[in-house]
Amino acid sequence: VFRVEHGSIGYQQPLHHDVNLQVERGQKIAIIGANGIGKSTLLKTISGVIPALGGSFIKAERGLISYFSQYQLDELSRNETVLDNLLSKTAVSEGEGRKILGAFLFRGDDVFKAVKVLSGGEKSRLGLAIILARQANFLVLDEPTNHLDLASSACLTKALQEYKGTVIFVSHDRSFISQVCSHVFVMTGDGRSMLFAGGIEDYMRLAGPAKFPNVLAPEEDEAKVKSATSSRESAQRASSEQEARQLKKQRESLERQLSKLEAEIAGLQVQVSELDQAMADPQHAQDFAKLHDLQSQCSAWAEKLEGSESLWLELSEELSSVGEELRQLGRT
User: What does the DSSP 8-state code read for residue 228?
Assistant: First the structure.
Protein backbone atom coordinates (compact mmCIF):
# COMPACT_ATOMS: atom_id res chain seq x y z
CA VAL A 1 0.00 0.00 0.00
CA PHE A 2 2.80 2.39 0.91
CA ARG A 3 6.58 2.27 1.19
CA VAL A 4 9.04 4.60 2.91
CA GLU A 5 12.70 4.18 2.03
CA HIS A 6 15.39 6.10 3.94
CA GLY A 7 12.83 8.79 4.67
CA SER A 8 13.78 12.06 6.33
CA ILE A 9 10.89 13.96 7.91
CA GLY A 10 10.46 17.34 9.54
CA TYR A 11 10.00 20.98 8.67
CA GLN A 12 13.06 23.20 8.22
CA GLN A 13 15.20 20.74 10.21
CA PRO A 14 14.76 16.94 10.18
CA LEU A 15 13.03 15.37 13.18
CA HIS A 16 13.82 11.82 12.11
CA HIS A 17 16.30 10.33 9.61
CA ASP A 18 16.37 7.08 7.67
CA VAL A 19 12.77 5.93 8.27
CA ASN A 20 12.06 2.63 6.52
CA LEU A 21 8.55 1.21 6.52
CA GLN A 22 6.61 -1.06 4.20
CA VAL A 23 2.84 -0.96 4.78
CA GLU A 24 1.00 -4.05 3.53
CA ARG A 25 -2.69 -4.22 2.63
CA GLY A 26 -4.93 -4.88 5.63
CA GLN A 27 -2.33 -4.00 8.27
CA LYS A 28 -3.36 -1.72 11.15
CA ILE A 29 -0.19 -0.07 12.37
CA ALA A 30 0.13 1.92 15.59
CA ILE A 31 3.07 4.35 15.73
CA ILE A 32 4.55 4.72 19.21
CA GLY A 33 7.48 6.62 20.71
CA ALA A 34 8.30 9.63 22.84
CA ASN A 35 6.61 12.99 22.24
CA GLY A 36 8.27 15.33 19.76
CA ILE A 37 10.20 12.75 17.74
CA GLY A 38 8.05 13.03 14.60
CA LYS A 39 5.16 10.54 14.83
CA SER A 40 2.51 13.00 13.63
CA THR A 41 5.00 14.49 11.18
CA LEU A 42 5.44 11.03 9.63
CA LEU A 43 1.66 10.75 9.15
CA LYS A 44 1.52 14.19 7.52
CA THR A 45 4.36 13.24 5.17
CA ILE A 46 2.72 9.94 4.22
CA SER A 47 -0.54 11.81 3.56
CA GLY A 48 1.17 14.48 1.46
CA VAL A 49 0.21 17.29 3.83
CA ILE A 50 3.88 18.26 4.09
CA PRO A 51 6.79 17.31 1.80
CA ALA A 52 9.48 14.83 2.74
CA LEU A 53 12.94 16.25 3.46
CA GLY A 54 14.61 13.24 1.88
CA GLY A 55 14.23 9.62 0.83
CA SER A 56 11.30 8.01 -0.99
CA PHE A 57 7.64 8.01 0.01
CA ILE A 58 5.86 5.77 -2.50
CA LYS A 59 2.09 5.15 -2.61
CA ALA A 60 0.63 2.17 -4.44
CA GLU A 61 -1.09 3.11 -7.69
CA ARG A 62 -4.52 2.13 -6.35
CA GLY A 63 -3.92 3.50 -2.88
CA LEU A 64 -6.54 6.04 -1.78
CA ILE A 65 -5.52 7.86 1.39
CA SER A 66 -7.96 9.48 3.82
CA TYR A 67 -6.22 11.57 6.51
CA PHE A 68 -7.70 12.62 9.86
CA SER A 69 -6.25 15.16 12.27
CA GLN A 70 -7.81 17.29 14.98
CA TYR A 71 -7.14 20.40 12.87
CA GLN A 72 -9.36 19.07 10.07
CA LEU A 73 -12.40 19.54 12.30
CA ASP A 74 -12.06 23.26 11.58
CA GLU A 75 -12.97 22.45 7.97
CA LEU A 76 -16.48 21.30 8.93
CA SER A 77 -19.20 23.65 7.67
CA ARG A 78 -20.42 25.27 10.89
CA ASN A 79 -23.84 26.33 9.63
CA GLU A 80 -24.66 23.03 7.93
CA THR A 81 -26.19 20.04 9.67
CA VAL A 82 -24.36 16.88 10.68
CA LEU A 83 -25.99 14.96 7.82
CA ASP A 84 -25.33 17.67 5.21
CA ASN A 85 -21.66 17.81 6.20
CA LEU A 86 -21.30 14.07 5.69
CA LEU A 87 -23.21 14.03 2.38
CA SER A 88 -21.32 17.02 0.94
CA LYS A 89 -17.91 15.53 1.77
CA THR A 90 -18.54 11.92 0.67
CA ALA A 91 -20.29 10.02 -2.12
CA VAL A 92 -22.69 8.04 0.10
CA SER A 93 -26.48 8.16 -0.18
CA GLU A 94 -28.63 9.73 2.51
CA GLY A 95 -29.65 6.29 3.77
CA GLU A 96 -26.05 5.10 3.96
CA GLY A 97 -25.07 8.39 5.60
CA ARG A 98 -27.71 8.03 8.31
CA LYS A 99 -26.54 4.47 8.99
CA ILE A 100 -22.91 5.56 9.33
CA LEU A 101 -23.86 8.48 11.60
CA GLY A 102 -25.98 6.15 13.71
CA ALA A 103 -22.91 3.97 14.25
CA PHE A 104 -21.22 7.09 15.65
CA LEU A 105 -24.10 7.80 18.07
CA PHE A 106 -25.93 10.47 16.06
CA ARG A 107 -29.46 9.25 16.72
CA GLY A 108 -32.78 10.49 15.35
CA ASP A 109 -32.88 14.27 15.02
CA ASP A 110 -29.21 14.52 16.04
CA VAL A 111 -28.33 14.33 12.33
CA PHE A 112 -30.11 17.67 11.82
CA LYS A 113 -28.06 19.53 14.43
CA ALA A 114 -25.93 22.38 13.10
CA VAL A 115 -22.20 21.75 13.51
CA LYS A 116 -21.79 25.05 15.36
CA VAL A 117 -23.78 23.70 18.36
CA LEU A 118 -21.81 20.43 18.62
CA SER A 119 -19.39 19.71 21.42
CA GLY A 120 -15.73 18.94 20.71
CA GLY A 121 -16.41 15.22 21.10
CA GLU A 122 -19.38 15.33 18.72
CA LYS A 123 -17.29 17.14 16.10
CA SER A 124 -14.61 14.46 16.43
CA ARG A 125 -17.25 11.77 15.94
CA LEU A 126 -18.55 13.53 12.82
CA GLY A 127 -15.05 13.97 11.42
CA LEU A 128 -14.30 10.28 11.91
CA ALA A 129 -17.63 9.27 10.38
CA ILE A 130 -16.75 11.34 7.28
CA ILE A 131 -13.31 9.73 7.05
CA LEU A 132 -14.77 6.21 7.22
CA ALA A 133 -17.53 7.06 4.71
CA ARG A 134 -15.05 8.02 2.01
CA GLN A 135 -14.01 5.54 -0.68
CA ALA A 136 -10.51 5.22 0.80
CA ASN A 137 -8.55 2.01 1.31
CA PHE A 138 -5.81 3.54 3.51
CA LEU A 139 -6.74 5.52 6.62
CA VAL A 140 -4.13 7.77 8.25
CA LEU A 141 -5.35 8.85 11.70
CA ASP A 142 -3.63 11.29 14.07
CA GLU A 143 -4.90 10.97 17.67
CA PRO A 144 -8.40 9.82 16.60
CA THR A 145 -9.62 9.22 20.18
CA ASN A 146 -8.88 12.76 21.41
CA HIS A 147 -12.04 14.33 22.90
CA LEU A 148 -13.99 11.07 22.53
CA ASP A 149 -15.94 9.73 25.49
CA LEU A 150 -15.97 6.04 26.38
CA ALA A 151 -18.96 5.15 24.18
CA SER A 152 -17.63 7.09 21.17
CA SER A 153 -14.19 5.51 21.50
CA ALA A 154 -15.83 2.08 21.60
CA CYS A 155 -17.73 2.91 18.38
CA LEU A 156 -14.51 3.94 16.63
CA THR A 157 -12.72 0.82 17.88
CA LYS A 158 -15.47 -1.42 16.49
CA ALA A 159 -15.54 0.45 13.17
CA LEU A 160 -11.77 0.07 12.70
CA GLN A 161 -11.83 -3.59 13.72
CA GLU A 162 -14.42 -4.22 10.99
CA TYR A 163 -12.69 -1.98 8.41
CA LYS A 164 -11.21 -4.10 5.59
CA GLY A 165 -8.64 -1.57 4.42
CA THR A 166 -5.30 -0.47 5.84
CA VAL A 167 -4.84 1.84 8.83
CA ILE A 168 -1.82 3.65 10.28
CA PHE A 169 -2.36 5.79 13.34
CA VAL A 170 -0.85 7.65 16.27
CA SER A 171 -2.54 7.39 19.67
CA HIS A 172 -1.62 7.65 23.34
CA ASP A 173 -4.61 5.49 24.32
CA ARG A 174 -2.98 2.16 25.11
CA SER A 175 -6.30 0.31 25.33
CA PHE A 176 -7.36 1.62 21.91
CA ILE A 177 -3.99 0.63 20.41
CA SER A 178 -4.23 -2.88 21.84
CA GLN A 179 -7.73 -3.44 20.48
CA VAL A 180 -7.07 -2.09 16.98
CA CYS A 181 -3.47 -2.64 15.89
CA SER A 182 -2.00 -5.64 14.08
CA HIS A 183 1.51 -4.14 14.07
CA VAL A 184 3.50 -1.59 16.08
CA PHE A 185 5.95 0.81 14.42
CA VAL A 186 8.38 2.11 17.04
CA MET A 187 10.35 5.35 16.70
CA THR A 188 13.19 6.19 19.11
CA GLY A 189 14.77 9.46 20.14
CA ASP A 190 18.12 8.49 18.61
CA GLY A 191 16.61 8.14 15.11
CA ARG A 192 15.95 4.41 14.93
CA SER A 193 12.65 2.82 13.89
CA MET A 194 11.33 -0.72 13.45
CA LEU A 195 8.06 -2.50 12.66
CA PHE A 196 6.93 -5.29 15.01
CA ALA A 197 4.11 -7.76 14.30
CA GLY A 198 1.40 -7.95 16.96
CA GLY A 199 0.36 -5.58 19.71
CA ILE A 200 2.21 -3.64 22.40
CA GLU A 201 2.83 -6.71 24.56
CA ASP A 202 4.31 -8.54 21.55
CA TYR A 203 6.63 -5.60 20.86
CA MET A 204 7.82 -5.50 24.49
CA ARG A 205 8.53 -9.22 24.31
CA LEU A 206 10.32 -9.04 20.94
CA ALA A 207 12.32 -5.84 21.46
CA GLY A 208 15.10 -7.58 23.42
CA PRO A 209 15.74 -10.43 20.94
CA ALA A 210 15.64 -7.86 18.11
CA LYS A 211 18.27 -5.77 19.99
CA PHE A 212 15.91 -2.80 19.78
CA PRO A 213 15.07 -0.42 22.66
CA ASN A 214 11.88 -0.95 24.63
CA VAL A 215 10.57 2.63 24.64
CA LEU A 216 7.83 1.66 27.09
CA ALA A 217 10.19 0.29 29.77
CA PRO A 218 10.70 2.52 32.84
CA GLU A 219 14.18 4.02 32.98
CA GLU A 220 16.23 3.87 36.16
CA ASP A 221 17.54 7.13 37.51
CA GLU A 222 21.14 6.20 38.30
CA ALA A 223 21.81 9.46 40.08
CA LYS A 224 19.11 8.67 42.64
CA VAL A 225 20.45 5.16 43.15
CA LYS A 226 23.98 6.44 43.81
CA SER A 227 22.87 9.08 46.30
CA ALA A 228 20.28 6.94 48.09
CA THR A 229 22.41 6.84 51.28
CA SER A 230 22.47 10.61 51.80
CA SER A 231 20.15 12.04 54.44
CA ARG A 232 18.75 14.59 52.04
CA GLU A 233 17.83 11.92 49.51
CA SER A 234 16.34 9.76 52.25
CA ALA A 235 14.10 12.61 53.39
CA GLN A 236 13.03 13.31 49.82
CA ARG A 237 12.31 9.63 49.27
CA ALA A 238 10.19 9.44 52.43
CA SER A 239 8.24 12.49 51.32
CA SER A 240 7.76 11.01 47.85
CA GLU A 241 6.54 7.72 49.32
CA GLN A 242 3.97 9.51 51.45
CA GLU A 243 2.80 11.53 48.45
CA ALA A 244 2.69 8.34 46.36
CA ARG A 245 0.52 6.58 48.98
CA GLN A 246 -1.94 9.49 48.93
CA LEU A 247 -1.98 9.50 45.13
CA LYS A 248 -2.56 5.74 45.03
CA LYS A 249 -5.54 6.10 47.37
CA GLN A 250 -6.87 8.86 45.14
CA ARG A 251 -6.32 6.65 42.08
CA GLU A 252 -8.20 3.73 43.66
CA SER A 253 -11.11 6.01 44.54
CA LEU A 254 -11.24 7.41 40.99
CA GLU A 255 -11.10 3.91 39.49
CA ARG A 256 -14.04 2.82 41.67
CA GLN A 257 -16.03 5.90 40.65
CA LEU A 258 -15.23 5.33 36.97
CA SER A 259 -16.20 1.66 37.17
CA LYS A 260 -19.53 2.61 38.74
CA LEU A 261 -20.06 5.34 36.12
CA GLU A 262 -19.30 2.96 33.26
CA ALA A 263 -21.99 0.57 34.49
CA GLU A 264 -24.37 3.50 34.87
CA ILE A 265 -23.58 4.77 31.34
CA ALA A 266 -24.17 1.30 29.89
CA GLY A 267 -27.58 1.18 31.59
CA LEU A 268 -28.51 4.66 30.37
CA GLN A 269 -27.48 3.78 26.83
CA VAL A 270 -29.81 0.78 26.95
CA GLN A 271 -32.66 2.99 28.19
CA VAL A 272 -32.14 5.56 25.42
CA SER A 273 -31.83 2.82 22.78
CA GLU A 274 -35.03 1.11 23.93
CA LEU A 275 -36.93 4.42 23.86
CA ASP A 276 -35.56 5.17 20.37
CA GLN A 277 -36.85 1.80 19.21
CA ALA A 278 -40.22 2.40 20.86
CA MET A 279 -40.61 5.77 19.10
CA ALA A 280 -39.82 4.08 15.78
CA ASP A 281 -42.53 1.44 16.33
CA PRO A 282 -45.26 1.90 13.66
CA GLN A 283 -48.00 1.21 16.20
CA HIS A 284 -47.21 4.54 17.88
CA ALA A 285 -47.20 6.54 14.63
CA GLN A 286 -50.67 8.03 15.18
CA ASP A 287 -50.64 7.99 18.98
CA PHE A 288 -49.32 11.52 19.48
CA ALA A 289 -49.79 11.46 23.24
CA LYS A 290 -47.77 8.26 23.51
CA LEU A 291 -45.07 9.63 21.19
CA HIS A 292 -44.85 12.83 23.24
CA ASP A 293 -44.49 10.80 26.41
CA LEU A 294 -41.76 8.62 24.85
CA GLN A 295 -39.92 11.69 23.55
CA SER A 296 -40.02 13.29 27.00
CA GLN A 297 -38.67 10.13 28.60
CA CYS A 298 -35.97 9.79 25.94
CA SER A 299 -34.87 13.42 26.42
CA ALA A 300 -34.67 12.93 30.18
CA TRP A 301 -32.60 9.75 29.89
CA ALA A 302 -30.38 11.31 27.19
CA GLU A 303 -29.73 14.29 29.48
CA LYS A 304 -28.75 11.93 32.30
CA LEU A 305 -26.50 10.03 29.87
CA GLU A 306 -24.80 13.24 28.75
CA GLY A 307 -24.22 14.27 32.35
CA SER A 308 -22.75 10.88 33.23
CA GLU A 309 -20.47 10.92 30.18
CA SER A 310 -19.27 14.44 31.03
CA LEU A 311 -18.51 13.34 34.60
CA TRP A 312 -16.71 10.25 33.23
CA LEU A 313 -14.49 12.48 31.10
CA GLU A 314 -13.68 14.75 34.05
CA LEU A 315 -12.79 11.80 36.28
CA SER A 316 -10.76 10.17 33.48
CA GLU A 317 -8.71 13.33 33.05
CA GLU A 318 -8.18 13.49 36.80
CA LEU A 319 -7.14 9.82 36.84
CA SER A 320 -4.70 10.45 33.99
CA SER A 321 -3.23 13.40 35.90
CA VAL A 322 -2.81 11.27 39.04
CA GLY A 323 -1.16 8.54 36.97
CA GLU A 324 1.27 11.07 35.49
CA GLU A 325 2.17 12.36 38.97
CA LEU A 326 2.84 8.80 40.11
CA ARG A 327 4.98 8.17 37.06
CA GLN A 328 7.04 11.29 37.78
CA LEU A 329 7.51 10.05 41.34
CA GLY A 330 8.74 6.74 39.96
CA ARG A 331 5.73 4.84 41.31
CA THR A 332 3.16 2.71 39.49
Answer: T
CB 276 within 8 A of CB 108: yes
127, 77 Cβ separation under 8 angstroms: no
Dihedral sign for Cα atoms in the order 276, 282, 283, 285:
positive
Least Cα distance to 106 among 37, 52, 152 occurs for 152
Q: Tell me the pLDDT tens digit for each residue of 25-61.
A: 999 999 998 888 889 999 999 999 899 999 999 999 8
- 3-state helix, strand and coil shares in percent for the chain, rounded to the nearest 5: 55, 15, 30
pLDDT digits (tens, 9 = 90+) for 187-205: 988 888 999 999 999 999 9
Residues 90, 320: Cα–Cα separation, whole Å: 36
- Check: CB of residue 104 under 8 Å from CB of residue 60: no
Residue pLDDT, tens place only, 212-236: 988 887 543 333 333 433 544 455 5
Write out the H or E segment, with its range, that includes residue 98.
helix 94-103
Strands 138-142 and 65-68, bridge-based pairing: parallel
- E strand or H helix at 305: helix 288-329
Supply the pLDDT for residue 285. 63
HSE (side-chain half, CA atoms, 13 Å) at 32: 24
Burial of 102 from C-beta contacts in 10 A (0-12 / 13-18 / 19+): middle
